[in-house]
Sequence to fold (830 residues):
Amino acid sequence: MYKLKSTLVLAEPRSNYQLQSPKLPYIEVLVDCPGAEGLYTYQLPKHLSVQPGDILSVPFGKQVMGGIAVREVEQPPASIAINNIREVESVIAAGFFPKYYWNLLLKVAEYYCTEIMTVLRVALPPGILRRSQRRLRLLPNIPPGSASFLSVHAQQVLDILQSQKDGDYSAQYLQRQFQKASLGIRELLRRGLVESYLAPPKTTRPKLQKIVTLVVNTFPLDLTKQQREVLEVLKHQGGELWLSQLVEKCKISSSVVTTLEKKGCVVIEEREILRFLNESDSNARDTAKELTPYQTNALKQITETVGFAQILLHGVTGSGKTEVYLQAIAPILQQKKSALVLVPEIGLTPQLTDRFRARFGNKVFVYHSALSEGERYDTWRQILRDEPQVVIGTRSAIFAPLPNLGLIILDEEHDSSFKQDQPSPTYHARTVALWRAQMENLPLILGSATPSLESWLQVKQRQNNNDQNLHYLSLPERIESRPLPPVEVVDMRLELQRGNRSIFSTSLENALLNLQSNDQQGILFISRRGHSTFVSCRSCGYVIDCPHCDVSLSYHYTHEGATELLRCHYCNYSSLHPQNCPECGSPYLKFFGSGTQRVVEELTKQFPNLRCLRFDSDTTRTKGAHRMLLKRFADKEADVLVGTQMLTKGLDLAGVTLVGVVAADGLLHRSDYRANERAFQTLTQVAGRAGRGNEPGRVIIQTYSPEHPVIEAVKNYDYLSFTETELQQRAILNYPPSGRLILIRLSGIDEIMVQRVAETLAEACVNLVGENGEILGPAPASILRVARRYRWQILLKLPITAKTPDFTQLRSQCPPSVSMTIDVDPLNMD
Fold:
């Protein structure tokens, strides 16, 4: 725990954080330091203009840290001497979020049981809140022979410092190099060979680039041919051009331009250039499409909505939900307002962004975690501008501070990717979007072909209550009356009885053979990446496990001749695949289960003429990989796209006529009360990728459980009866959406300590849940050990109307050696 310094004033730790902005001499700041609670009071220097909402650099103890200006006050607490109050050092970023959504951040912190600073770290771009760094550097003119009497530890530190040109390293880096480095550092300081200093926080800064501006109308006579050419180019470019572009265009060195500046012909100055993600080279332009009667009715309802409303747009796959979004946004932009569009996966943004930019041009911006720090920083600042714009992003974009927001859209609202499991706050973007729409009095559209049970139950209940703020809009038909692809269910037990031991059934094999001859494309869905789920010895039965987690290692083999690897999908540990069993030395190691790599390998063996692409988290790690792979497939560089969950989410590929689900059983049999709902949504969504173009589609689902109710519902596209049955079963057990869940996750290095803490906290929870609540556990997590940390869980079941308990006392009972996370409304129970 960080000890508070007397020079820092803690002003009302439990005070109201509402932003205010009178012109007063003191500012209360929320400081980004672990263990620091409440607001700290600082003086405002006369030369510094500070407003609530600014990001500040402030002294805190012996460090300089980032903080948020919350409110100005006339007087600090009477118990604190004014002479002890320190001054704000600088403003890192002015007005980095507007006042209006401060209440939203407070609500997130309260509901999800976390500190407001934790919410701010998620909401703000990375790199804004940083702390100063303690560094060491060699002093100049060290007398010869000074190092002769140093200890071994001091000599090691000195050698590292002298190996660098400037002799300057952070104390943290030096301490990581070897044990007892701190002893060596103290000795060097005592002998006066080095000095210690505090480096200010390195924050993300605007990117500056040199621009050349033409400042004369008539060119001087004493110009060389090359200099005159430069001025002519500038003139034809409107009088301004980036220096780098000018040098490249004229094939000159920058010294030519510098000479022209000396002659008074041009001015060279630094100007900010904004870093935006713009992967697309397409200049395509698009116009509004003619709508079907169902789309027309949905659009009419949306555009006529004034003020807050929650709108569930339930449209079958391929029914044109995106076109409704586009035409709903157009009048919003005309009203000089902005729109926020959230998608569950980064992989969805390239296709969606291209389509939106084709319609709205440079008014479209992208914001998600895969952007660089600079791109997120500049996009955030662009968002703050009071200009009509469309922001497309993943769940973190719900905090994008659009100053004049007119509409929020959650596409594929059912998707679990909208929920953050870790780190805190464990927020759900759908819930936060609802709060934001209410606070800013604007419509929220939830779009899906398979709405979540939470959204569906809300529609049913509010329609019965005649709630005017909730609307249900249906798109039951595909565009141009295209039929939904028929679903064929293949019983793999019968395939085995017929002697077919391939991972492809006869039906799927024949369909794949016909793809290339008919100039068509197919998608193969598999729920796991990698090659095989586990590797086992056929002689002794030994399974190769991860040394850090209680899971088996998955076999990865990308292509012929590549290194054979075993990898953990939880902690990312990897090792070479052994030639012999580590237990008994047997060479007979067998791969079990099928991942995306295994499917691609089998496809290549059985169908050598089919060209394959793999689309999973292994092949899309690099920046722009999602766009590149999808573009290659859309350009027909491959016949089959093999992938995981990414394939199920909103991909619109007109050439796909076949969808094959290689092993549906991996989705059905999971120890999770949401397993059926997720399986139905995933299979229905992936089936919807087929037949979206002019050619009819076909879906083949392979399973060992063809009689499973989920398979039956998917086969008949029967959302209504499936949801009715599922809601009844949930209600009996008081599971969401009929009840509330709060999952307390505990983890630590010491297994016994974690278990004891879990047992102690479970007893303390009795008073929190009340008579109508229920405590399940404590119990070890389904995977006890991940990344060398042991995990236990306590699940609280509460009535749907129950408020979130106050966990302050519970947190105080948890020792520092055990990490505790409170997941409100959890989706994953692992």
Q: What stands out?
A: The domain at 9-123 is CATH 3.40.1440.60 (GIY-YIG endonuclease). The first strand starts at residue 9 and ends at 11.
